[in-house]
Amino acid sequence: MSFQILISDPLSEEGIHPLRQTDNMEITVATGQSEEELLSNIEQYDALLVRSQTQVTKEVIQKGKNLKVIGRAGVGVDNIDLDAATEHGVIVVNAPDGNTNSAAEHTIAMLMSLARKIPQAFYSLKQQKWDRKSYVGVELKGKTLGIVGLGRIGAEVAYRAKGQRLNVVAYDPYLTEERADKMGIQCATLEEVLHQADFITVHTPLLKATKHIINDDAFKQMKPGVQIINCARGGIIDEDALYRAILDGKVAGAALDVFEEEPLQNFHLLELPEVIATPHLGASTVEAQENVAIDVSHDVINILNGGVARNPVNLPSLPAEVMKRIEPYFNLSEKLGTFVAHIAKEAVEEVNIYYSGDLTEHDVTPLTRNTVKGILKRFLGEHVNDVNATYFADKKDITINEQKTSVTKGFTNLLTVEVKTRNGFAKVAGTLLNGLGTRIVKVDTYSVDVVPTGNLVLIRHKDQPGAIGRVGSLLAQFDVNIATMQVGRSDVGGDAIMMLTVDRQIDEDVLVDLKEVTDIYDVTPIDL
Ligand SMILES: NC(=O)c1ccc[n+]([C@@H]2O[C@H](COP(=O)([O-])OP(=O)(O)OC[C@H]3O[C@@H](n4cnc5c(N)ncnc54)[C@H](O)[C@@H]3O)[C@@H](O)[C@H]2O)c1
Ligand SMILES: O=C(O)[C@H](O)COP(=O)(O)O
């Protein structure tokens, strides 16, 4: 099977080498497309690779009927409609680490250029002026740098700033005193950062909570003569408020790499001599571009070939060692979900998943998600996948409960899936037998030993002599060969089940006749 990949922003040729080297990937590079152009051709692609220019809107995702993955060669995913991607089952991956150094170095370059007015002085000299009075700067040593957002880039900026003998004071809701102490910086509130800093640099993502976090009110709280840097995202700083604060003389300078609208349309801020800027160049180094393109290429290859993403954005990611431990149970969890959805027959209202054994030491969320995927596929079809399974469950008001216990009742690990419908409960349990693969070991209260693959038939019947024979004869009449059969009963002469594996699908006419067999209550074909 070959996959069509569209690269719609400039990506490093060295970085996409892994994609070019993979046999089943056909790559189209078409950068600078308008949204209309993208909308007209996106349907043919399985993967879309972008940087920050391409706007991956809801419409693009809706039109991208074959899209399975969107790869962002960089960090910020604010140009991608994540909700739409999740709803349509498209996995979004990014490259969170590849450009950290470059962005941090660019921030420091901007900080030093700002402090020493280097771009302004250079521009003046280019005009053939020898002006040594207008460009008197300030030293960094002994000043305070305020950092808002101490993630990957913020932390790298902090380390480098200490090298310039700056005092660093940082605000990040996830920053602990302990980590700040280790880094030799001060952990502060946003207000403390605003009050204390001579230079303020922002390094948060653009989120609802961070949009215009630096606004008129924030500027009021700052020291007179403060200088501002934004190498994160346009919109974290309110550009109009910044303009006012510079005109008021509160802000002595600003260095901007990113803007509320890109490409920049309104140049009013740049008309101010206090403002220096670059056109979103934080990640524009040979090294960063190669790194991020390699990272997304690997994830795109993994996902399209059925593997696990390393940097998923709309799926929680787990440490590699945890994934390795729970991955063998992926197939079982989905099969149990599909099985129980078949035998439940009615719409599922509640899903209870019980994990027992040493698996419970780990985060089993991907298994729960897989089970839900198996259940919902039965009702909603093949478009339900890992990414949108819990989204659809939520939309359908299906409650999902996960319980863990270390008691295993004889199995190293046991996964039990119980669903509630308006008619009551249906339950199935399964395990992974060392060297033998997956098994269904319980259906409702009956113990069985069934390989969860192929065409299965669950028959509920009365425990009477001849019932099994009658089923066997009828299937033989229809040329349906029975590969395996398991029988379980509650009491002698009471309710019982037959679990059959057959060599072909049970047709409607076979089903009708099976249901007519004496002592048979119910027949459910299950395709796994
Ligand atoms: N200019 C460029 O070319 C360039 C390059 C790389 C990254 N970026 C941007 O830099 C930003 C940071 O990237 P990163 O890799 O460090 O991300 P990150 O996720 O490692 O760090 C972001 C930090 O912001 C913190 N945060 C979130 N909300 C906050 C709030 N309300 N107040 C304070 N802190 C908050 C988070 O806790 C986190 O620690 C992103 O927006 C990214 O897109 C820009
Ligand atoms: O979020 C990022 O990674 C940076 O803003 C880089 O964006 P770019 O890939 O468009 O240079």
Description of the structure:
This protein has 528 residues and is of the alpha/beta class. Helices cover 33% and strands 25% of the residues. The chain has 18 helices and 22 strands. It has helices spanning 17-21, 35-41, 58-63, 82-87, 100-116, 118-126, 152-163, 177-183, 190-196, 216-221, 239-247, 286-304, 320-326, 330-344, 365-380, 389-395, 467-477, 508-516, and strands at 3-7, 25-29, 47-50, 69-72, 91-94, 144-148, 167-171, 186-187, 199-202, 226-230, 251-256, 275-277, 350-357, 399-405, 413-421, 424-433, 437-443, 446-450, 455-462, 482-489, 495-502, 520-527. The strands form four sheets. The protein has a seven-stranded parallel sheet, with helices on both faces. A six-stranded mixed sheet has the order 14-13-15-16-17-18, covered by helices on one side. The longest helix has 19 residues, at 286-304. The structure holds nicotinamide-adenine-dinucleotide (NAD) and 3-phosphoglyceric acid. Nicotinamide-adenine-dinucleotide binds next to helix 5 and helix 7.
